């Protein structure tokens, strides 16, 4: 390990045509910074990888929502050939008539993203590696130290016996008590199978850096499919912890459609309806009723729906015309965003 280069698992992406805080230093392709130090404040880092703790396909939905709506650039990508077992998780490829296309191989990438208020943050996302977890962890820690990352937030999800008719539950963990205290709806004492996210959180904590994680609870009977509700919840917790404005409009619309579809199917299957009723009874019996909202600071008064809506409208009016705020494009979309914000506060 002593001869290991700090970033020998990374392919560094440099764009000389744009102003960037990144460059490549030969001959070892080490990540270096333009200037000392960075001109802006330290950025937070969000980590979301698709592994066994990815119920409802959280990671893919989160990265698609962020990278599809917000300005971003690829900073670095991990060497997938050194990290993945292709035969145990075979990539997909499209065959059309007489040709192959759209090879969808594994990936693990680091992006610099700017939120709706033009605040930068780092996003590490992709597939959980099969090999070299310790080397990956060392590389991520090198990045965190080199960039003086202000806060690391991990988000993942588990399939649990909860009903889809109740708010998404969460288990908060980490070393920032102000970002986890009073947040969890369920905090068990248990030994569980570790994923890369949990291992990274442990290593980052041991290194003395600020780190928190939010594990979202997906109804177990919906864990195998795409469940937009869990992605909305993940973006809410991430945005609140990192003080970022993250897009959720399209995911909320998808969640409404999924809810309608689930309700229709449940109404047509009495045995499923009975199962949901039992889960509701258990949830209501054991659910935490005094969950704290990350959106409300200590001694703050919770604003009502009208105040929240006015605040969002005022923010949008103060921004340049090219600022992206979810999928908001006109007054109707703004009204929808206001409603969603108020609903979020009610839920929290």
UniProtKB/TrEMBL annotation:
InterPro entries, per the entry: Proteasome_assmbl_chaperone_2 (IPR019151), PSMG2_sf (IPR038389)
Q: Where is this region: Disordered?
A: 319-348
Concerning Pfam families, the annotation shows:
PAC2
Source superkingdom: Bacteria
Start-end of Acidic residues biased regions = 328-348
State the name under which the record lists this protein.
PAC2 family protein
